[in-house]
Design brief:
Chain A has helices at 3-15, 18-55, 85-92, 127-131, 144-148, 158-163, 207-213, 233-248, 263-306, 308-316, 321-358, 367-393, 396-401; strands at residues 60-65, 69-70, 73-74, 97-112, 115-124, 136-139, 153-156, 174-177, 180-188, 202-206, 222-227, 258-262. By secondary structure, chain A is an alpha+beta fold. The chains are: A alpha+beta, B alpha/beta. At the A-B interface, helix 10, helix 11 and helix 13 of A face helix 2 and helix 3 of B. Bound molecules: adenosine-5'-triphosphate and magnesium ion.
């Protein structure tokens, strides 16, 4: 029998019991929809996290002080104060280094007119925006002259500016940081990262000013380095290690009093973790697809019982076993395929909505629906064959006598 | 005399129910020539339907040989039997046995589906068959929307649509009132006059009288 005839037969049959067909398909619909949307969520989250990490700075290396060692007790990384402004300047002279910025920090009470907040004050140079990949929204970044002259100038993060009620017209106005007047020279564009360590909630001032007014001494919290090209990252890392070991008088093989964090390393780790998560989500969702398939098998088995007489009649008027087999198999296939297509539509819709809500946009990967359709077809075959064989094997005489 | 269309030799059908064996047919010898109108008469439970199932290739004898149109049926596999049913036999069952929730037209067209006839031709031929049986205005009705007599005529149209050499009718008037029963008998008579071989089962001696020959069954045996 031709495929067209079989599909027509299946559709007219399913059309005559729509509610049952719909309920049977529901399992496959839910299964496929959850596979499609969960994979999209996983991939969306991966690309979202990757983008955010890339937003921290391209080819970024961060040098942090090591841990203090008191007797046999080793403190947390960064607890030692071993990095200095001079270290930063020395790193600036290395080959392959595009930009360097030292960072000192302090937390201060800030007042602008009637508004106030408490936030992180970062003592740095104008290179901060380059290395940390910030765009200046209004005004300009810190300039070298201000750093040299220890000027009270401030560049505000987007969130901080918002909190203080400052906007485009506020460039040139004066705010008070820790009771001292500072001139606002620029406001940064928001990066969109949130949470207590938001990069948008901070104020940049010359490190010389921080040293003069808030934290005396030449030590820094960290040094940010932008490497000229991705290929040079490892070389530059090596150069910095040698340089700092020499400068800090550490013998080769000794314990370094600094650590170098590599942005690209973090990126690969994070994306491999979230890839694993995606596979895990898809696996869980596939289980619901499996359950949907078992639902189809259940209904088809019931259907074969109910239609035993019909099968007997069909055989009596000329149907061969394989005609009956094909009829029931195609019915199961149509159910699963139809369910699969509806599931894809719902899944794509859901991933679009989630993408919009979560803010990573709509990541459409045509592979997922394709795989989902093939998978639901497979489900139809696997779970349809058994009932269809039961139908095909019926003895016409027995089937005709069946009540 | 030419070889008979139907040739049963010493045919038995024994149902094995495990604890008991029911001999529905025992040592039946029967020849039916082409163009004959044979009536098989017998009381309820005598084995008439069992005989028709064997003649119609729905069932196999447990002993004896059956030759249909020169083909020894025992040599065919299930697919072969299905092909033989599809090509040479038209069934009218004791209780209509129409496909439920399926229109009269689709019911009549279904045997042609299994012959591989295109949908267009199927519907045209099914429509013509229904027309011939006076059901031209009922083609889109499903069985539950038809009277018993109309259902029986749909069943006859379905048996005839493939132009089978042999028409088997099991109690074709059993569920009908006398007037629509008479219509069906007249129709069978016309079909036979046009050259078709008919084997009709009935327990009604009056109905059997229209046939060209009668055989009687009792307790699974033919009696003269
Ligand atoms: N599947 C079966 N299993 C066991 N016994 C059966 C089966 N089919 C028929 N029989 C028995 O075979 C005998 C003949 O049955 P059959 O149906 O051929 O009778 P019939 O002459 O057609 O009767 P009726 O006029 O009532 O239709 C009966 O005794 C019946 O009980
Ligand atoms: Mg009977």
């Amino acid at each position: 029998m031709k495929a067209m005839e079989l599909v027509r037969l299946a559709l007219s049959r399913l059309g005559s019991s729509r509610l049952r067909a719909a309920l049977t398909m529901l399992g496959v619909i839910i299964g496929v929809a959850s596979v499609v949307s969960l994979v999209a969520v996983g991939q969306g989250a991966t690309s979202g996290i990757t983008k955010q990490l890339q937003g921290l700075g391209t080819n970024l290396l961060t040098v942090n002080p090591g841990a203090t060692t008191t007797g046999f007790t080793r403190g947390a990384a960064g607890s030692a104060s071993t990095l200095t402004i001079a270290d930063a300047q020395a790193i600036g002279g290395l080959d392959g280094v595009a930009a360097v910025e030292p960072e000192t920090s302090t937390s201060q009470f800030v007042v602008a007119g009637t508004q106030n907040t408490t936030t992180t004050i970062v003592g740095t140079t104008g290179a901060y925006t380059t290395v940390r990949n910030f765009n200046v929204w209004q005004g300009s970044t810190l300039n070298g002259a201000a750093v040299d002259a220890t000027l009270n100038e401030a560049v505000l993060g987007a969130t901080t500016a918002d909190d203080l009620g400052l906007g485009a017209s506020s460039i040139g106005s004066t705010i008070k940081i820790g009771g001292l007047p500072f001139r606002v020279v620029g406001i940064l564009q928001a990066k969109g990262s949130t949470g207590p360590t938001s990069q948008d909630d901070q104020i940049l001032v010359p490190y010389t000013t921080v040293e003069d007014h808030f934290v005396p001494g030449k030590t820094v919290r960290s040094i940010g380095i932008s490497v000229a090209s991705a290929g040079q990252i490892d070389t530059v890392k090596g150069e910095i290690t040698t340089l700092l070991e020499t400068r800090h008088g550490i013998a080769a093989g000794g314990t370094n009093d600094f650590t170098i964090a590599d942005q690209s390393q973090l990126l690969t780790t994070v994306s491999s973790v979230s890839d694993l998560l995606t596979v895990l989500l898809a696996g869980i969702a596939s289980i619901s697809l499996l359950v949907g398939g078992i639902g189809i098998m259940n209904i088809m088995l019931v259907s074969v019982r109910e239609r035993t007489r019909e099968i007997g009649i069909r055989k009596a008027i000329g149907a061969r076993g394989r005609d009956i087999l094909a009829q029931f198999l195609v019915e199961a296939l149509v159910l699963s395929l139809l369910g699969g297509l509806i599931g894809i539509a719902i899944g794509v819709g859901a991933s679009y909505l989630i993408g919009q809500l979560a803010g990573w946009g709509f990541v459409f990967n045509p592979i997922t629906p394709l795989v989902a359709v093939l998978f639901s077809l497979l489900v139809g075959i696997v779970f349809g064959v058994w009932p269809a064989r039961q139908a095909a094997r019926l003895d016409p005489i027995v089937a005709l006598r069946y009540e | 005399m030419s070889t008979p269309l139907i040739e049963l030799q010493n045919v038995s059908r024994i149902y094995d129910l495990g604890h008991i064996q029911v001999a529905a047919l025992q040592g039946v010898d029967l020849d039916v020539q082409e163009g004959e109108f044979l009536a098989i008469v017998g009381p309820s439970g005598s084995g008439k339907s069992t005989l028709m199932n064997i003649v119609g290739c729905l069932d196999r004898p447990t002993a004896g040989t059956y030759t249909l149109n020169g083909t020894p049926v025992a040599e065919l596999d299930d697919d072969g039997l299905a092909r033989l049913r599809s090509r040479t036999i038209g069934f009218v069952f004791q209780n209509y046995n129409l496909l439920p929730r399926t229109s009269a037209l689709e019911n009549v067209a279904t045997p042609l589906l299994y012959q591989g006839v295109s949908r267009k031709d199927r519907l045209a031929r099914a429509g013509a068959a229904l027309e011939r049986l006076g059901l031209g205005d009922r083609v889109n009705h499903v069985p539950t929307e038809l009277s018993g007599g109309q259902q029986q005529r749909v069943a006859i149209a379905r048996a005839l649509v493939t132009e089978p050499a042999l028409l088997l009718a099991d109690e074709p008037t059993g569920n009908l009132d006398s007037s629509s029963g008479a219509d069906v008998i007249t129709l069978l008579h016309e079909l036979n006059a046009a050259g078709r071989t008919i084997v009709m089962i009935t327990h009604d001696v009056d109905v059997a009288r229209v046939a060209s020959r009668q055989v009687h069954v009792r307790d699974g045996r033919l009696i003269a």
